[in-house]
Amino acid sequence: MFNVDHKKLRLSFNEFHDVSDKDMPQHGEYCLLELKTGDYTAGGWVPSGDRRKLAGYFLRGTADTVDVEEVARWHSLDRYDLTESLETEGVNWINIGREEEEGDRNVQFEGFQSFADRKNPKEEQFCLLIMKDGSLAAGRWNKWRHTAGGAFIYSSALASYSSDKVWAWTPLSSDEIFAMEVERENEKKREKQLNKNPSADPELFKYGTDINVYYEKALEKLREEFSWATLPMMRKQTPLWQIAPLHGKFVFGQISRNYYDGSDIVTPWTEGTAADEFIEFLVRYTRDAVKNANPEEKFKFGTDINVYLEIAFDNVKKDYRWLDKKMLGKSWQYDIRKVDGDLEFVRRYRNEGEYSVYDVESAERFIESVEYDYQSAALQANDTVASYEPPFGHIDLHGWNLERYIFYKMKSGDYKVSVTAGDRTTGGSRDFFITPYCFEAKTYEEFLGRYLEIVPVCSFGLGREELLPDKKLKSFLGY
Length: 479
Known about the structure:
Helix 3 packs across helix 5 and helix 7 packs across helix 8. The strands form six sheets. A six-stranded antiparallel sheet has the order 2-7-3-4-5-6, with no helix packed on it. It is of the alpha+beta class. The termini are far apart. Helices cover 25% and strands 29% of the residues. The radius of gyration is 33 Å and the shape is extended. It has four domains: 171 residues, no CATH class; 82 residues, no CATH class; 82 residues, no CATH class; 93 residues, no CATH class.
């Protein structure tokens, strides 16, 4: 690695270009910038394209720019390689550009730090960088949220230099984004200090600061209407309410995690000012969860899971005639177990991992869910033997584009259709079984009427207008 001591190093920038001379860098060239305020930052030059006047901006990151009217001078960072100087032992001064300029025409940077010394910039701090390949760069520091290290963002779409590519860094001038981050950090510190000894409004917390007490009082009221009500049923209604400090006072609130820094975000309850009002609110908030957990409805066929699975199997078998129980070994596994004192439908995928609660409000809803899983397992087990893809042009599906629409004939003689749609960043596919009921139609036109109830044009792109004239599809489907 380099032999220079970064702690003693000074970089002297000499060959600045005055913006007033309209002598601008190449499009995209990354430059050290001296602003008219005397502050220093950096960015990549993006001209406006209007050659009659000097217009454009320097790009520092996503939605992070400096207008050319704010810039007094610029100095290229892209045109230099400091490798030779940095490999020379004892060097502590490196000139960037010719040494002819004197006084305020020369700008020096020092105070370099290194990640090797376990030093990080402050969040959102814009820094001048010496890269490990000897080049110069700049960027705004963003610490990685879930792992060690971070990156310097320098352009749009979060283009960045990871910390392991940087040899040394030193902060440039503070700016609005960094100042906002500093204020946010100061606010977090003030909030932490306020919340060390929070006060409790005696009207709001007359039953104390244990949230379980309030849930239990709400439970007593719910049992007047729903005799089967339990605390676990109430707690299915999420997010849960908690008692937490906010701005130096206890509040009833819901707590979420701040994605960017992992801190807690407390959203306070604001619908009343008294403890009994909050209890009434809890009753309303959890009522539907309790109502839909009636064990007599949920387990109306008893507590033997095989009864429910047999009903689902028989229902699916009516249309998916090739289905047998051996095909279900690769699907979900189900059971009825006690969880927190209440019976629950639970499931796990194949034989992997722990069972998790499958929260449904009725036996019928659970059976429908199992039927869907069995249908998927049946389609996966039935190999395709032929396919036909009807032609179509551009079709917009509520912001997604239809990409594939293919009819398949399966080994059993049945048919399915596979639809794929997506946009620039995501997408998905779905298979639909074309039920025997559709093929009971005497004409192709009547068949399409039944088919489009399963795969409607409003959701999946192709309708009667596209499919009715398609003679190849008609023949492929046996009409």
